[in-house]
Design a protein that fits this description.
This protein is of the alpha/beta class. The chain has twelve helices and ten strands. The chain has helices at residues 17-23, 30-35, 58-70, 104-113, 123-127, 143-150, 166-179, 194-197, 201-204, 208-213, 240-243, 285-292, and strands spanning 3-11, 37-39, 42-48, 76-80, 83-84, 93-97, 100-103, 117-121, 140-141, 156-159. It binds iron/sulfur cluster (2 copies) and FE3-S4 cluster (F3S). FE3-S4 cluster binds next to loops.
Length: 295
């Protein structure tokens, strides 16, 4: 007997990068995820995913709406992308009902009200990200804010990243299937699973010794810590330095780029390649203050 868990993937104001990153999952592969049991005895029944499903049009919108009504309270809703809201909600629509376009705010609201739990996949869904960056002409909002505004109280897990590592999504889903929804102490204040987002990039960075010695790269390609080239590693929580990307091939700082802080709520609030100034550096803040003061 295999238990089927229905999953609906709803894209909002998104670039599809989060979906493409999921397709890059190495272990399990996307084929394993779709066809096999992701954990023994449990199969994820992906009912709707516009990027990878074969069907289109009325047929797939019916599958989406049938899942909402027939699997009420039993399906997981994964959202990538922010949610355009209010008078500008029609910037993003998903299918029609009675010949009229259904905007993503309305579609998300009804799907969220009837879901078992919600996963906000990617920084756009989790924190607003690029669509919600000023001047935000579509009044795009992160999933958490829309849920709060509408008084929808459903379990929400944020899995940010631009895009998120496929393991962060697959691992979160597998953990839910194995032992249920995470306990509050397993998430941080931004509702991120601590198992993936519990440590600063800076804590495990192989260039950290350069930072501690005060040896900073002045231009791309230089040896040294990338802090002065805009690295946001000291304020960014994710396990990229130990997990690596693309089946363990490399990662952002390993390829010579500063960390852009893509898993953080502040992602679009900082210039990517400008040095952080006047910030309290978690963990190393006290050291940095002390060393600047020459003590
Ligand atoms: Fe695209 Fe990044 Fe937004 Fe994902 S988080 S939809 S990769 S812009
Ligand atoms: Fe690594 Fe960036 Fe920290 Fe430098 S500032 S040690 S490059 S995370
Ligand atoms: Fe993002 Fe920084 Fe990791 S830019 S992918 S959190 S190294």
């Amino acid at each position: 007997m295999v238990k089927e868990i229905p999953l609906v993937w709803l894209p909002g104001a998104a670039c599809t990068g989060c979906s493409i990153s999921l397709l890059n999952s190495a272990s399990p592969t996307i084929k394993n995820i779709l066809v096999d049991q992701i954990v023994p005895g449990v199969h994820i029944n992906l009912r709707f995913h516009p990027t990878i499903m074969a069907g289109a049009g009325e047929q797939v919108i019916k599958a989406l709406e049938d899942t909402m009504t027939l699997k009420k309270g039993n399906y997981v809703l994964a959202v990538d992308g922010a949610i355009p809201t209010g008078p500008t909600a029609n910037y993003c629509v998903m299918g029609e009902r009675n010949g009229k376009a259904v905007n993503i705010e309305a579609r998300f609201t009804e799907l969220a009200e009837n879901a078992l739990a919600i996963l906000a996949v990617g920084t756009c869904a989790a924190f607003g990200g690029i669509p919600a960056a000023p001047p935000n002409p579509s009044n795009s909002q992160p999933v958490r804010k829309v849920l709060e505004a509408k008084g929808i109280k459903k379990p929400l897990i944020n899995i940010p990243g631009c895009p998120p590592h496929p393991d962060w999504f697959v691992g979160t889903v597998a953990s839910i299937l194995l032992k249920g929804l995470p306990q509050p102490e397993e998430l941080d204040d931004n509702l991120r699973p601590l198992v993936f987002y519990g440590k600063l990039i800076h804590e495990n960075c192989p260039r950290r010794a350069y930072f501690d010695e005060g040896k900073f790269a002045k231009k791309f390609g230089d040896e040294g810590c990338l802090y002065e080239l805009g690295c946001k590693g000291p304020i960014t929580y994710a396990d990229c330095p130990t997990r690596h990307w693309n089946s363990g091939t490399n990662w952002v700082i390993g390829a010579g780029s500063p960390c852009l802080g893509c898993t953080q709520p502040e992602f679009t609030g900082y210039a990517f390649y400008e040095k952080l100034v006047d910030v309290e550096l978690p963990v190393v803040g006290a050291y940095w203050q002390t060393s600047k003061e020459g003590k």
